[in-house]
Amino acid sequence: MRKIRLLILLFVGAALMWGPVSLQAMDKEANTIDELVSMFDESSCMECHEEIHNQWSQSWHAQSVVSSLGSIHNFIEIGIKKEWNTEVTRGQLLKCLDCHAPVINYASEKLAVEIADMIVTATKEKGKPAGESAKKELAKLNVGCLSCHNLKALAVAPGWNGPREEGMIYGPHGEDAGDAHETLESIDMTRSAFCMQCHGIYTAADGETIQCNTLSGSYQNAYVAKGGSKTCQECHMDKGHMFPGGRDLDTVKQGLGFDLQINPYRHLPGQIKDVKDAKKWVPSAVVTVLIENRAGHRIPDG
Question: 17-26, 71-80, 259-268: which range is least confident on average?
């Protein structure tokens, strides 16, 4: 019986090793960006999920680092170096990149500092060869498939959910993906709390809280508290994995109600200073504009 169990374990281990993602070497630390990306190889995901991958490639998740270089640069140069007067470390950098590129958790200390330097270079040398070269490297980092479907899948309530399984793919329903890979259910992925891990107040490993925006606060305090029941996913995944938001016109139209009323009238005679025209009617109008917030959070926000 023990031999049979051992063979089964070896078979499962081999299946994970040769499966669609490379998560078998999680005890290692990457020393280059290419090595880090290869540890979380997601290239085979598109073979079965081509449509989803195409949607994701058009999303801001696909460029979560390069689209936020200015903000992350300020966090490094002004926050870490000046206001806190401390060194740039992986732990400090993760206060931004644990959300913008969760794979940084598996970068070596040396690589993390190099990535911070690249972010500074890409910002300060924007449009120049050095800056464009740094940006090209940083574009390899993003919020990819495994960021949500593995690394963050159980992180909403780790004490309740327990540790995630390395090499496992988590989904909202846990469907069987056939021979490609096993999928375990993570019910948290259907709830707003899942998105709020990053789109809200982030608690770093040292206990410091980082608030990049007030999105989760206004959602909870001004929407849910007043009876709102929609989740982030209901509005922001109606186009699948594009995750449309404030930069998408259709989403803005859904989130804003707009009503325009124009009431024409004319001023009474005698309102014009010029005596010659004192008996003329003056055409005028009262314009009333009503903008209604239909979103589950304050607008603008992010």
Answer: 17-26
Q: Does 235 reside within a domain? A: no
Number of domains making up the chain = 2
Q: Are residues 283 and 183 in the same domain?
A: no
pLDDT value of position 302: 57
- pTM higher than the cut 0.85: no
Handedness of CA 32, 33, 38, 39 (dihedral sign): positive
